[in-house]
Specification:
The complex is a heterodimer of chains A (244) and B (416). By secondary structure, chain A is an alpha/beta fold. Chain A is 45% helix and 17% strand. In chain A, strands 2-8-5-1-4-3 form a six-stranded mixed sheet, sandwiched between helices. The model of chain A has no long low-confidence stretch (mean pLDDT 94). Chain B has 416 residues and is α+β, with helices and mostly antiparallel strands. In chain B, a hairpin with a 4-residue loop joins strand 2 and strand 3. In chain B, helix 1 crosses helix 3. Classes of the chains: A alpha/beta (244), B alpha+beta (416).
């Protein structure tokens, strides 16, 4: 089984700071996403799964519409596999209901001037993010227990929580430790032959909030990828599939 | 009235539960800012986990980073009896440096050992440091008892193993307490889980400790740290012990000149006297030229020792070994003198206590050694047990490479 642990906004520097050994695996580093005008989640995951720079396609109908974009499996490397599971990935199996609500709460948080309302919005936003994380996590580990040749789980908690709480190191550490423990559990699963941990972009501090940083994170146990482009994973995964 | 404060340090092997114990002590004594523990609890629950008290430490570290608490390595909690300061430092090496170099002057220590893992390398090295610093008020906690089903037999096994080692160091712990910092067993409350144990909780044990005798009652020592030249020369520094007053007749060491205190200056104050622990400026009557490193004493009190060679016991902290003949900077309080290790009498492994080499040519990282240090000029020092700041030293290259305690004079003494 090939497994992709896809983590939105996993920041290289925090992986180092919190010493997340399992997320790092044997080889790890930053990805090169400099070919894109901005580190946009939908653009980056679309380019990852298709192996092509999809920035123009994703943005052709404007920023608002990009979240509705959905790629046919034939355009992605998922088609190499017989029974793949792809959970919650933007541009493929994305939960529009949850993520849409999350973006509205975030917008309202920044728009309202009422402090009490701000606090309540933040609580609801954080709670939703954690609930969703647990939901996807359950599905992900269930899939890892099944007879599958490919499983991808996309986890947005570091991004969603990071946007509002990046300045709160305790919360960020708790999330990174959670993700690190998940990586440990994946690695212990005997069905898993190859694990790639990948983020679209990282996160940097803007005051006490967080914004996307201009590189992503990758790690594997089998190859030093140096500073790969996100589009290069398409061929890499085809290669691993063929070898197995 | 201001509450009494006792400073203690928690030592032990990495992952044996130091952070969790600190978090639990703060939680059980209600010493955390409102809302913080709820936030940690809530996120742990959201992630489907039990509350992890270690995150309290992260919160305190974050506060320090943001400058909410001033001190870089201290955190506070209180019981009905007194306030406590936990001395901490990030990382094993920094921690050892802080302990030895005196950045942390602990009056008591908690040695924490994992009930599952037992005594490990850092348990032994840290115990060695406690011995070196002469700490006598020591609580041993056998932690993570929840992971060994609160087994009395396992507790006794670990206790036996530890006592065998501590005996070699002549450390007699005041208490050996089984605990679970995670579950809160025997931290503030005695619990049913450990009903077979009839000793005190950690907080009761801490409360039973006594404060060290105040340094105010010792002979007066003032270390000049800097000299500011305005209309008058202000000798800034710290009162290390005793009490210094206006008009006091003082002796300047090592030069042995005498002068008189004309004025004491403190930030936004003009006190008539200053006691041990105070950072002040002193203006002398005759404007005597003092330098950084001078030690001022009262003429008629017992005087410190002055020598250009000391015997010491040091802990080498640098990856790069010391090789005989190398010159290093010897720092004792504000005194800085170039020197070299004239003789490395004995090198010991601080973990196994085994003598590795005698009359050695080098000391490697984490080794402990008895040495004679030859200095290029006189140093003023005291017995470590009387005035610790004048009895401990560090050696420096680019950075601190060793720390130690002076045990005796190493050559000809310059008696006052």
């Amino acid at each position: 089984m090939i497994v992709i642990f896809a983590i939105d906004a996993l920041e290289y520097n925090l992986v180092e700071e919190f010493n997340c050994k399992n997320l790092k695996q044997k080889y790890y580093g930053k990805t090169d996403i400099s070919e894109f005008s901005q580190p946009r989640t939908m653009v980056l995951w679309s380019s990852f799964m298709t192996g092509k720079n999809k920035e123009d396609d994703v943005l052709e109908d404007g920023n608002k519409e990009m979240w509705n974009k959905k790629w046919d499996i034939k355009e992605t490397f998922f088609s190499f596999f017989e029974n793949p599971v792809v959970l919650d990935l933007p541009g493929f199996s994305y939960d529009l209901g949850f993520h849409g609500k999350s973006r509205i709460l975030l917008k309202n948080f920044f728009e309202t001037k009422n402090l009490e309302k701000k606090e309540n919005l933040k609580k609801e936003y954080n709670k939703d993010a954690f609930d969703h994380h647990r939901k996807i996590k359950d599905k992900f580990f269930k899939a890892l227990g099944e007879d599958r040749d490919f499983v991808l789980g996309y986890f947005s908690v570091a991004d969603v929580i990071g946007h509002l709480n990046f300045g709160n190191k305790v919360i960020m550490k708790m999330i990174y430790i959670e993700l690190d423990e998940m990586a440990e559990k994946i690695k212990k699963n005997k069905r898993v032959k190859s694990l790639i941990i990948l983020s679209d972009h990282g996160m940097k501090a803007i005051g006490r909030f967080g914004d996307h940083s201009e590189y992503g994170f990758w790690s594997t146990n089998f190859k030093d990828l140096k500073t790969p482009k996100i589009t290069e994973f398409y061929e890499l995964i085809r290669g691993i599939k063929n070898e197995s | 009235m201001e509450k009494e404060n006792l400073r203690f340090v928690i030592v032990g092997h990495v992952d044996h539960g130091k952070s969790t114990l600190i978090g639990r002590l703060f939680y059980d004594t209600d010493s955390l800012p409102e809302g913080k523990i709820e936030e940690i609890k809530q996120i742990c629950e959201s992630l489907g986990k039990d509350i992890e008290f270690g995150y309290v430490m992260d919160h305190l570290a974050e506060e320090r980073d943001q400058g909410v608490t001033i001190d870089t390595a201290q955190t506070f909690f209180r019981t009905d009896k007194r306030e406590y300061t936990i001395i901490d430092a990030p990382g094993h090496v920094e921690f050892i440096k802080n302990m030895i170099t005196g950045a942390s002057q602990a009056e008591a220590a908690i040695l924490i050992v994992d009930a599952n893992e037992g005594v490990k390398e850092q348990t032994r090295r840290h115990s060695y440091i406690l011995k070196m610093l002469g700490l006598k008020q020591v609580i041993v906690t056998i932690n993570k008892m929840d992971l060994v089903d609160y087994s009395k037999d396992r507790f006794n096994e670990v206790k036996k193993e530890l006592i065998e080692f501590l005996d070699k160091l002549n450390i007699k712990p005041s208490y050996i307490i089984p605990i679970s910092a995670k579950e809160g067993d025997f931290i503030a409350k005695k619990t049913e889980n450990l009903k077979w144990f009839d000793g005190p909780t950690v907080l009761d044990a801490l409360d039973s400790f006594s404060k060290e005798e105040s340094l105010i009652d010792r002979p007066t020592r003032f270390a000049v740290q800097d000299v500011y030249k305005f209309d008058e020369r202000i000798n800034a520094g710290m009162v290390l012990s005793g009490l210094i007053k206006e008009n006091d007749e003082i002796l300047v060491l090592p030069s042995k000149e005498t002068t008189k205190v004309k004025e004491i200056k403190e930030w936004l104050k003009a006190p008539k006297e200053a006691e041990a622990g105070k950072s002040i400026g002193i203006v002398t009557e005759d404007g005597l030229f003092l330098d950084r490193g001078c030690i001022l004493t009262h003429k008629d009190e017992e005087q410190p020792k002055i020598t250009s060679a000391v015997k010491g016991h040091l802990f080498w902290l640098d990856r790069e070994p010391y090789k005989k003949g190398e010159r290093v900077l010897f720092k004792l309080s504000s005194q800085e003198i170039m020197g070299e290790l004239e003789k490395i009498e004995r090198v010991i492994d601080s973990s196994t206590l085994e003598t590795l080499r005698e009359d050695a040519d080098e000391i490697k990282n984490r080794e402990v050694a008895d040495v004679i240090i030859k200095l290029s000029s006189d140093v003023v020092f005291e017995d470590f047990n009387d005035i610790p700041t004048l009895g401990r030293f560090v050696l420096e290259r680019q950075d601190t490479c060793a720390g130690g305690i002076i045990t005796e004079i190493g050559g000809k003494t310059n008696v006052i």
